[in-house]
Amino acid sequence: MNMEKERILKINKRSFITVCAILITFMVLAYVLTFFLEKGEYVPIGDELVYQTLPGKGYSFFSFLTSPFRLLGSSDGLNVIVIALFMLILAGSFNVMNETGGITSIIGYLIRKFQNRKYLLLYIVILCFMLFGALFGIFEESVTLLPIIILLSLS
Q1: What is the C-alpha separation between 84 and 95, in angstroms, rounded?
Q2: With bands split at pLDDT 50, 70 and 90, how would you rate the model's confidence at 82?
């Protein structure tokens, strides 16, 4: 049991490092692109938003380092924080359900319940995703639900 726990911790550390490396790579790529792409902003003119090019290229390295923190302090920072917390809570809930066998049990129940009507189950799941997106604006949060959809599709 102890060796299995160490193996799981090793996998979790490796996963964490991999995710951090991917995020840092994307951040560096976005920073490098600021030197090749024109700066600009959308300015409201009448009822339309018009793109206006700004002088200069690139941002300082200090701006690059502080950009995640400035994002959280911006006017949209609260939205970012709420989405991140929601995804963290949802992922934690799924992890607990997965460790206790709850997801397997729920999927098994749904498979037995809709055994002869599997397309109806698929339609219901798709409808739920569409309603979540249309009514609540939940688009990026639904990514954490994809493993369940994959399991349902494979069964």
Answers
A1: 16
A2: confident
Whether 36 and 26 have beta carbons less than 8 Å apart is answered as no
Q: Sign of the CA dihedral 71, 76, 77, 82?
A: negative
Q: Is residue 100 classed as helix, strand or coil in its secondary structure?
A: helix
Q: If we measure between CA atoms, which residue out of 63, 153, 146 comes closest to residue 110?
A: 153
Token representation of residue 18: 């991999």
Strand ranges inside the chain, DSSP E:
40-45, 48-53
pLDDT in tens, 57-71: 778 888 888 988 888
Which DSSP string corresponds to 67-86? Answer: HHHHHHTSTTHHHHHHHHHH
Residue 146 and residue 109: Cα distance in Å, rounded?
A: 18
For the full predicted model, state whether its pTM sits above 0.85. Answer: no
